[in-house]
């Protein structure tokens, strides 16, 4: 399922003294099956953009096309319910998505809303909670008693329970320890490998390098770059101008090359880097 933005504008509180132009002529196409990162500094328009994917926000002008579903300023999709099953969004702050008195009720809400029986929805809930690292002892607990990281896991489980074709995640590993973050990103990669589109808003460039095929860079409400991950991280000066740090391994390669080495910037892991360094030393 492809995602296409055509000259999309979005202004908050238009025609008021508080008007804010958040998206400015955004043209963007994300191919089906891509695992894509969306990066940029705070206020660049990332969160505004992703909320157009399932019509939580409508464009002020332009058009968003989610396969055959057209979203414009004047025409909401006839079936928002169907669109939001196709495109699942996990917010940066998971407490915005949790509302039921138990975790089980929260996770089964989506499947039941789309026609699953109580028994079917419960089975789905147990499966997706296990996928995000929460066992059945959590089922009857209140989601509001959990830590921030656990709330995030429940919010992700609630979206996964609806089996979306597009999964949009805003800072999905915030509040997780390093192993928990790796486990979660490994899960998203496995989901992507089934053919689903995964879009991750992230400030962690190490994660972007390790997991994402493409990167979209937003700045001042516009899409400035949409390139392969390895290509973006060769643009050292450009990223520095946006105060975006290089991934740790890419930064190290850059320093090596400034000191006479000729290491490929596309290297993503330490084993490959070690081989490349040995090869240069032995030449």
Beta percentage is 15-25%
* SSE order: EEEHEEHEHHHEHEHEEHHHH
The amount of helix comes to: 25-40%
How many β-strand runs? 10
**Poorly predicted spans:** none
Q: Identify the quaternary structure here.
A: single chain
Mean pLDDT: 91
CATH superfamily of the domain at 31-52 and 77-228: P-loop containing nucleotide triphosphate hydrolases
If classified by CATH, what would the architecture of the domain at 31-52 and 77-228 be? 3-Layer(aba) Sandwich
The termini sit apart by 47 Å
The biggest sheet, with number of strands, parallel, antiparallel or mixed sense and barrel status, is: 6 strands, mixed
Evaluate the radius of gyration: 20 Å
Could you tell me the CATH topology label of the domain at 31-52 and 77-228. Answer: Rossmann fold
Shape: globular
CATH class of the domain at 31-52 and 77-228, named Alpha Beta
Structural class: alpha/beta
How many helices in DSSP terms? 11
Strand order, sheet with most strands = 6-7-8-3-9-10
Features:
11 helices; Rossmann fold; globular; alpha/beta; about 280 residues
């Amino acid at each position: 399922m492809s995602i296409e933005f055509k000259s999309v504008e979005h202004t908050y509180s238009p025609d008021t003294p508080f008007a804010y132009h958040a998206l400015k002529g955004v043209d963007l196409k994300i191919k089906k099956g891509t695992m894509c990162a969306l990066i940029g500094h705070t206020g660049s328009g990332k969160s505004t953009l992703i909320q157009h994917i399932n019509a939580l926000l409508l464009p002020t002008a332009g058009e968003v096309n989610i396969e055959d579903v057209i979203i414009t300023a004047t025409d909401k999709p006839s079936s928002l319910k169907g669109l939001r099953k196709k495109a699942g969004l996990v917010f940066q702050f998971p407490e915005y998505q949790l509302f039921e008195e138990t975790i089980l009720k929260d996770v089964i809400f989506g499947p039941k809303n789309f026609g699953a029986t109580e028994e079917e929805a419960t089975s789905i809930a147990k499966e997706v909670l296990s996928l995000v690292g929460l066992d059945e002892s959590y089922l009857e607990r209140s989601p509001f008693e959990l830590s921030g990281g656990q709330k995030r896991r429940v919010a992700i489980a609630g979206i996964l329970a609806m089996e979306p074709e597009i999964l949009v995640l805003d800072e999905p590993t915030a509040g997780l320890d390093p192993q928990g973050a790796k486990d979660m990103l490994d899960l998203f990669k496995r989901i992507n490998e089934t053919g689903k589109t995964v879009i991750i808003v992230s400030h962690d460039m190490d994660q972007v390098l390790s997991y994402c095929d493409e990167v979209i860079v937003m700045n001042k409400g516009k899409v400035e770059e949409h390139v392969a991950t390895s290509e973006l991280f060769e643009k050292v000066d450009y990223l520095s101008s946006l105060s975006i740090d290089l991934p740790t391994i890419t930064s190290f390669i850059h320093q090596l090359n400034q000191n006479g080495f000729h290491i490929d910037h596309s290297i993503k892991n330490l084993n490959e880097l070690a081989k490349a360094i040995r090869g240069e030393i032995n030449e």
